[in-house]
Every structure is written in structure tokens, then in C-alpha cells.
Amino acid sequence: MHVRYEGDDDPEKCTARNLARFDLVELHRSDRATPYGVVLNPHAERALSPADADTDAGAGALVALDCSWESAGEARFSLPGEHRALPYLVAANPVNFGRPMRLTTVEALAAALAIFGRRDRAEGLLSKFSWGHTFLELNDEPLRRYADCADSGAVVAVQQEYLDRGEDG
């Protein structure tokens, strides 16, 4: 797993730096090439699905961008690879707890791993954070449902059910 590290957020709260200290991800500065793979990008046109784990890109690297939410515009995601958006999930991190789609880097990587059917690896990443298990608890049902989908279209259909619930509730 790889993280394009921009270094523009609070280093004390940076989950990517913490993961790198445990040798769980490799950090890449913006001036260095980032490995080709599946790039987690909230601006992507296609949703991440289990099918992406079986592509050439999925067999390569899983890549996340670590930057401040204030600067996470589409231009920051000019990385090579197959860009995919994570479906609807709720943050468990202390800064954005309960807010949809405001995930930390570790939450994004763990979500992708869970959708790829690698929940044990997702748990391993999240175990480095006191609140990590809460992410999987809050998102248990959607992550399991997304992991059962055949492709991006099916993930989007499941996601729509959660979005519709939010509008009704």
C-alpha cells in the first residue's frame, strides 16, 4: 500500500505518517513517482468494487492521497492508475466522527481492503488507532454489502440505499 503524502495537515493527527512508522504503508512525496495501481479518489467517476482487486491495477498497488480536506480538490489527484471512489461510509476518526465521506487515510485504505475481501488486513491497519475498531463497527453492514457486489454498478446501487435512508431520516 502506498500513500502520496502532501504534508499539509496536522502531523500529530496524520494517520498515514502513523502507518508508515509501523511499516504498513510506503509514503511518497509529491516530487517522487507514486506506484501505479488503484487510486482512491473521491472525485473518480467509478466506485471501488471487489472487481478492482482482480484488475492489473488492483494486483499492483493500492494508493491513497494524504492531504488536508481543505486542499483535496480534483487537481491533487493527478496520479497514474485506475481511479476509484469509495462508496458511502461514515468516519469514525475523532476529527470527523459520524460525518459521511470524511475519512482519514487509514479509514480509506481499510475500507478498500474490506471491500476487496481483506478484512483482516483492514483490522490490522485500524488496530494502530484507539478509535480504529469503531470505523469497522459503524460501517460493518455497508462494507459487507459492498464486498458482496460484483462490480461498480452494484456498489452504486447499494450506496444509493444508504443515501436514500439519509434523506428519509
From TrEMBL:
EC numbers for this chain: 2.5.1.157
Protein name per Swiss-Prot or TrEMBL: 16S rRNA aminocarboxypropyltransferase
BP terms from Gene Ontology: enzyme-directed rRNA pseudouridine synthesis
Binding-site list for S-adenosyl-L-methionine: 15, 65, 86, 105
GO molecular function, one term: S-adenosyl-L-methionine binding
Function, as annotated: Aminocarboxypropyltransferase that catalyzes the aminocarboxypropyl transfer on pseudouridine corresponding to position 914 in M.jannaschii 16S rRNA. It constitutes the last step in biosynthesis of the hypermodified N1-methyl-N3-(3-amino-3-carboxypropyl) pseudouridine (m1acp3-Psi).
Pfam families tied to this protein: Fer4_RLI, Ribo_biogen_C
